[in-house]
Amino acid sequence: MSRLPGAGLFLVRDFRRFFAATVAGQLADRFVFLALPLVAILWLDAGEFEVGVLTAMTTAGSLLIGLPAGAWVDRWRKRPVLIGADLVRAVLLLVVPVAWWADALTIWLLFGVALAHGLATVLFDVGYTSYLPALVGREHLVEGNSKIAAARSAVSVGGPGAAGPLVAWLGAPLTLVASSAGLLLSALGMWGVGKPEPVVEATGDRRLMREIGEGLRFVLGHPLLRPMLFTDGVFSLFLVTYQTMLLVFLSRHVGLGSFGIGLTLSAMAGGGLAGALVARRVITRIGPGPAVCLAPLCTAPAAMFMPMTRAGWPLWLAMAGLALVSMGGVVRLIAQVGLQQTATPDRLLGRMSATVRFVQWGGMPLAGLLGGALGGLLGAPAVLWIGAAGMTAAFLPALLSPLRTTREMPTAVPKPR
């Protein structure tokens, strides 16, 4: 796969199947993202703190098994991990509509499903990031990541727009049946990929803590991975704080129903699609390091437009602000993932990905609880202000790191410092 003309990776059958599986899985995720909290808000009359706890349960998997997951995935073939995680999540999501039908649905059951679903998602995401370099080759990672990001963003545009009416028509519990079907299609697509995976290297010492420590030392000692790790962690903390109260704000302060919320999230995702389409051009022009620093720094302040609707600012401007935030975030993500993948040797890809995810997602349960607690204490609009300010400030320290002058993807793995 050294040279790919014209349509590039879409000429490769295995990538097309992988791409189709990604679309199905992402559509399922979009339905879950909207339907699960709406089950709590609309069907169980959950308060702000309970919505925060639900967000915490959804993301707690990274905190609980984030680091071991990297060591486990580095020991295993990646594709079976992806297929198994999809199947487990598909079954879990069916628990909610079955419990609703049996009149046994409670907030505690919803917490349990969210936690178990999150644990399986950790394994899927770590395996996914580690599998792509083997599938497309390191020389095509920017193209592969850009196409995947474009697919995810496109689904994020259409997903909430489809999920909103679906929730209004079927109800949030039954919408999760559609999510389960999407995950089954994702597993089927992954199963159809035929390219053999590289043989997993056997090592003499397979002690879990030693392997986790090796991954941590590599990431924390790397001049590019380290600043990305810390800035990403801070950004994610404030992003989840913001997102935890966004649905509450739109539902209870702006007065939107399921369709309006879905439309707002679709507008936000439209910015992500635009970011995916321009990312390669931006990265080529200014370099991946500056893209990581500048893209979110220039766009995150627009998140402040949403709470300004309380002062009479139009909702369409707030929606445009969310789209701009999403656009900058996707450009950053494509540049960042490319740097992480090209700077890491194959045998450490799982542990690198897990370390990044542990920091990026490990604080999310705290952020969900913090967002819920602050929402109950200060109100949802104040939480949106706090989240927007934190997202804006998160990438200022990155400008003082070597990322600021990194104009090319690493061609060889540099020795950690």
UniProtKB/TrEMBL annotation:
Molecular function via GO: transmembrane transporter activity
SUPFAM superfamilies per record: MFS general substrate transporter (SSF103473)
Localisation per UniProt entry: Cell membrane
Keyword annotations from UniProtKB, A to Z: Cell membrane, Membrane, Transmembrane, Transmembrane helix
An example Gene Ontology CC term for this record: plasma membrane
Claim: Transmembrane is one of the keywords in the record: yes
Membrane topology: Multi-pass membrane protein
Pfam family, one: MFS_1
InterPro entries linked: MFS, MFS_trans_sf
Main location, first listed in the record: membrane
Keyword Membrane: yes
Designated name of the protein: Predicted arabinose efflux permease, MFS family
Chain ranges passing through the membrane: 18-43, 49-69, 81-101, 107-128, 229-250, 256-279, 315-335, 356-376, 382-400
Superkingdom of source: Bacteria
